[in-house]
């Protein structure tokens, strides 16, 4: 059954018991992202500390895929150097736009590989990327505000 | 039993729709419950467009050759049949790109009237004037009015929605008042299925001298609609929701109004006389059809109207009512379901929207899709309505003449399966 390929146990676990959920202080930047086709939304905060992602906190409403992928995001990036976090972002982004043809690297994406099945459903790719796009937006603005640029 | 109330022979009808024979998601028969978004096409409509293109294709209303004559006849004959279908005269039927453009046409024409001469005064509006819409509108019947208010300085107001998904008419006399220049509302909600009472709304608009714009996208495909009898000033609907092609909408406007209203889009085909510094415009409907029109599409919509008329709009409405009540009754038996909109069949059409406790609509739609059941999920371009009813999104099943009670059963089984799959059953 195709459905199980999409809704892996890992995804359902993250959906039912999300990691890192709730907005926390202090933070550097906050990003609000919305999926205009369904109204799902996420507010996500990032705190950077000496080139390390010190915290990611979030709140929002959305489907199992968007909620679980944001939960996985926090597991993957919090406590990691920003450069490493962005490598994971790129890998997840590539996986989600791969129409199911990209073989995910478990060393990089860990629980994120469970979303390989979601990539076969174009309508759900936006759901899976909602929190990740918020993360990228918040990081971009944090760097813009902190740097000389 | 009379012919009028004879039930539809759905199996025979389905044979006309090639796409209904296909399977989806590993061999599941397609159960298409998304006709509220777009309807499927019978062979007769596809063939009519093909025949036009292979036998009569030419630019209409110009050229002296035989093909141009045949193409013009086909185009204008379609207009006449479409007009008859909605209780209008051919001169009252304007072809647009879609229904959204039809509403924008009226809104922009009113904006243009606001800077035109006294002949267009009845369409003009400015600061102190009011535009009224409702909280249950599709974005297409809200955003153009927001924009018109912004451009002209008029104020946008709206009628609210009750908890059970009806228009709240308790404030009608206050909201629609002598300052109101236009009242725009939907005939049948694309989310709730609610059929709005046109009569008291038109009566109030008449009392205060406001123009009435009716969004008939969800009513014209599914029931007998007569715009003259309804007494509205303008109405819009789209071809692709009524077995017709994409890229075509219809704007109905009362003859005398279209004759006085300034144009929206300008250019070729819509002029009377052009000089370097100024132009005069053709009478309606041509005044509102700038550029080469959607010719083969209009011909195809003519065929769609012929098809629907042959089946009988009253029979289609009765059939959809049967399916709607079966779906509502079936959903009522499943725990954890909240129907968004009227829960009985009274004054409602065949759009059934709902939420499932503990499961996001996207996830419900995904499980239904896995069973071959195509529904719509999201806010269905009615975000303010969802906000009013306290849900971020909903699942919508919508029915048409080619659906039957087996489709309803497969749908209900899919909803139960969704609850089992996500462990909320």
TrEMBL record, chain A:
GO terms for molecular function: iron ion binding; iron-sulfur cluster binding. GO terms for biological process: iron-sulfur cluster assembly. Residues 6-127 form the NIF system FeS cluster assembly NifU N-terminal domain. InterPro entries: NIF_FeS_clus_asmbl_NifU_N. Coiled coil: none annotated. It comes from the Bacteria. Pfam families: NifU_N (PF01592). PANTHER family: IRON-SULFUR CLUSTER ASSEMBLY ENZYME NIFU HOMOLOG. This is Nitrogen fixation protein NifU.
From TrEMBL, chain B:
It catalyses: (sulfur carrier)-H + L-cysteine = (sulfur carrier)-SH + L-alanine. Catalyzes the removal of elemental sulfur and selenium atoms from L-cysteine, L-cystine, L-selenocysteine, and L-selenocystine to produce L-alanine. GO terms for biological process: cysteine metabolic process. NCBIfam families: sufS. It comes from Actinokineospora terrae. Signal peptide: none annotated. Its cofactor is pyridoxal 5'-phosphate. Residues 31-411 form the Aminotransferase class V domain. Keywords: Lyase, Pyridoxal phosphate, Transferase. Its EC number is 2.8.1.7. This is Cysteine desulfurase. Belongs to the class-V pyridoxal-phosphate-dependent aminotransferase family. Csd subfamily. GO terms for molecular function: cysteine desulfurase activity; lyase activity; pyridoxal phosphate binding. PROSITE patterns: AA_TRANSFER_CLASS_5 (PS00595). It is an enzyme of class 2 (transferase). It comes from the Bacteria.
């Amino acid at each position: 059954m195709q459905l199980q390929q999409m809704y892996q146990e890992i995804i359902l676990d993250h959906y039912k018991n999300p990691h890192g959920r709730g907005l926390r202080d202090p933070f550097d930047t906050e990003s609000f992202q919305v999926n205009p086709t369904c109204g799902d939304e996420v507010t996500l905060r990032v705190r950077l500390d000496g080139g390390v992602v010190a915290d990611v906190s979030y709140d929002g409403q959305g489907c199992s895929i968007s909620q679980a992928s944001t939960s996985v995001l926090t597991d993957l990036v919090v406590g990691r150097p920003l450069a490493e976090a962005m490598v994971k972002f790129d890998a997840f982004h590539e996986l989600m736009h791969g129409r199911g043809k990209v073989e995910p690297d478990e060393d990089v994406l860990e629980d994120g590989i469970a979303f390989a099945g979601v990539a076969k459903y174009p309508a759900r790719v936006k759901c899976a990327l909602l929190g990740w796009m918020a993360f990228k937006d918040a990081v971009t603005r944090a760097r813009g505000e902190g740097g000389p640029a | 039993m009379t012919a009028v109330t004879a039930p539809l022979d759905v199996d025979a009808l389905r044979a006309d729709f090639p796409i209904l024979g296909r399977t989806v998601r590993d061999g599941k028969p397609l159960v298409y419950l998304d006709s509220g978004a777009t309807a499927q096409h019978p062979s007769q409509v596809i063939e009519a467009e093909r025949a036009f293109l292979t036998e009569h294709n030419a630019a209409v209303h110009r050229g002296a050759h035989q093909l141009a004559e045949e193409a013009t006849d086909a185009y204008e004959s379609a207009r006449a049949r479409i007009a008859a279908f909605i209780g209008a005269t051919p001169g009252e039927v304007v072809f647009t790109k879609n229904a959204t453009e039809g509403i924008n046409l009226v809104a922009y024409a009113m904006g243009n009237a606001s800077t035109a001469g006294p002949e267009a005064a009845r369409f003009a509006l400015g600061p102190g004037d009011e535009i009224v819409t409702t909280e249950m509108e599709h974005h297409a019947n809200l955003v153009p009015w927001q924009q018109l208010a912004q451009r002209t300085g008029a104020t946008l107001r709206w009628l609210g929605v009750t908890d059970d998904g009806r228009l709240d008419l308790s404030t009608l006399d206050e909201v629609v008042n002598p300052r109101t220049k236009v009242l725009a509302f939907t005939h049948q909600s694309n989310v709730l299925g609610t059929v709005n009472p046109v009569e008291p709304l038109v009566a109030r608009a008449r009392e205060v001298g406001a123009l009435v714009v009716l969004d008939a996208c969800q009513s014209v495909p599914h029931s007998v609609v007569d715009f003259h009898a309804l007494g509205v000033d303008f109405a819009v609907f789209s071809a692709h929701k009524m077995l017709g092609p994409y890229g075509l909408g219809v704007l109905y406007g009362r003859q005398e109004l279209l004759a006085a209203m300034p144009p929206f889009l300008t250019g070729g085909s819509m002029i009377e006389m052009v000089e370097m510094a100024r132009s005069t415009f053709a009478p309606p409907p041509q005044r509102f059809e700038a550029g080469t029109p959607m010719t083969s599409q209009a011909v195809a919509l003519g065929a769609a109207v012929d098809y629907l008329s042959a089946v009988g709009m009253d029979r289609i409405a009765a059939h959809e009512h049967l399916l709607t009540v079966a779906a509502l009754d079936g959903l009522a038996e499943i725990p954890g379901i909240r129907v968004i909109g009227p829960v009985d069949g009274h004054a409602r059409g065949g759009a059934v929207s709902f939420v499932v406790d503990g499961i996001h609509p996207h996830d419900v739609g995904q499980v239904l899709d896995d069973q071959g059941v195509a529904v719509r999920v999201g806010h269905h371009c009615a975000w303010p309505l969802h906000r009013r009813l306290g849900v971020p999104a909903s699942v919508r099943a919508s029915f048409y003449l080619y659906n039957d009670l087996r489709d309803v059963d497969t749908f209900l089984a899919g909803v139960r399966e969704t609850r089992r799959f996500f462990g909320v059953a």
